[in-house]
């Protein structure tokens, strides 16, 4: 029975490590395939239509509604003749004024401007009143730096 005994008396344990060499081989083969295939693929060419006889659209100047810190509203802009106007209005007067202006120019946008000291709720209130009353193009004016 002495012949069956192992030399050194120690047992070999199974290794818990993953052999990553086959994965690296596969990745290198894929890399070579993509490097060979990349120059073969032709980029798509997009043919954009050309505009030869287009007339430039006349942009209607917006109605600028300013919300002041005390809640007062001011509407300013230009009329059809190009004359500048500025009016102090309440919310109902603003809606009537905007509808009157948009009856003349249906695509005329309304831009809401406010000072930093004005609460955002007041600006949103004016915007929601205009939107609820059917004004289509309402936006916020931002100050560029």
TrEMBL record:
Q: What do the Gene Ontology cellular component annotations say?
A: plasma membrane
Q: InterPro entries this protein is in?
A: ExbD, Tol-Pal_TolR
GO BP annotations, alphabetical order:
cell division; protein transport
Q: Where are the transmembrane segments?
A: 20-41
Superkingdom per UniProt:
Bacteria
Keywords from UniProt, A to Z, are: Cell cycle, Cell division, Cell inner membrane, Cell membrane, Membrane, Protein transport, Transmembrane, Transmembrane helix, Transport
Question: Which one Pfam family would you cite for this protein?
Answer: ExbD
User: What membrane topology does the UniProt entry give?
Assistant: Single-pass membrane protein; Single-pass type II membrane protein
Q: Where's it found, cell-wise?
A: Cell membrane
Q: What is its main location?
A: membrane
- The residues the entry assigns to the signal sequence are none
An example molecular function term from Gene Ontology annotations: transmembrane transporter activity
* NCBIfam families recorded: tolR
Stated family: Belongs to the ExbD/TolR family.
Name of this protein: Protein TolR
Instruction: Please give the organism.
Output: Cupriavidus metallidurans
Report which gene this protein is encoded by.
tolR
